[in-house]
Design the sequence.
């Protein structure tokens, strides 16, 4: 199966999206009821669905496509990293078109192209003899100010070497961590394809 159509086949209900998120362990601080509430709160603020995607009675027919699933996973990851809810919403909706192209690229180039593996030899006598890093990394260059304002640039995608420099290099400003977007997207797709039918008692899904 070619990878582009594979992504286009993803179409999950709210309950299935919850199943994927729980299986990814991306929001372990929330129980099922708490996760459900957080997802609905994000949805009311148009994450991961834009206004034009919610023009259905009570949102009952909304399905999580690939981009929606990855966006909500990223939102929960950012929340877990300590970024305030309002800032998460702002960063994910401000450049949504660019971000959705990054999500797809991150999956398609998780081990090739920009995300091709990069091997780093270990110092002599240290085990293992080398480490290999791969995949793409999402960077908002986000930095919190004392007054509660979060400064962030337009999202960018880093290759393994650029990510290593960002993690390990010297810099004066201390920014929020990078997001291992290829890793998240790859795992989300694998689980989405295995998601069982989820029957839930409430009909607002």
Sequence:
């Amino acid at each position: 199966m070619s990878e582009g159509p594979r992504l286009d086949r993803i179409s999950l209900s709210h309950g299935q999206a919850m199943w994927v998120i729980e299986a990814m362990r991306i929001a372990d601080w929330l129980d099922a009821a708490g996760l459900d509430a957080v997802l609905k709160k994000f949805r009311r603020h148009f994450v991961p669905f834009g206004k034009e995607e919610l023009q259905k009675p009570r949102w009952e027919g909304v399905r999580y496509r690939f981009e929606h699933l990855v966006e909500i996973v990223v939102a929960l990851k950012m929340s877990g990293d300590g970024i305030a809810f309002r800032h998460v919403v702002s960063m994910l909706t401000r450049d949504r078109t660019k971000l959705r192209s990054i999500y797809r690229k991150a999956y398609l180039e998780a081990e090739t192209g920009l995300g091709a593996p990069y091997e780093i030899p270990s110092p002599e006598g240290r085990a293992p003899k080398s480490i290999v890093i791969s995949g793409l990394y999402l960077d908002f260059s986000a930095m919190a100010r004392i007054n509660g304002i979060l400064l962030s640039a337009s999202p960018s995608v880093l290759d393994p070497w650029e990510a290593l420099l960002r993690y390990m290099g010297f810099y004066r400003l201390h920014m929020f961590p990078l997001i291992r977007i290829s890793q998240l997207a790859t795992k989300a797709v694998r689980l989405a394809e295995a998601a069982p039918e989820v029957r839930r008692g409430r009909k607002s899904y």
Remarks:
- The chain has a mean pLDDT of 88.
- Strands lie at 118-121, 130-133, 137-139, 143-144, 150-151, 156-158.
- The longest helix spans residues 66-80.
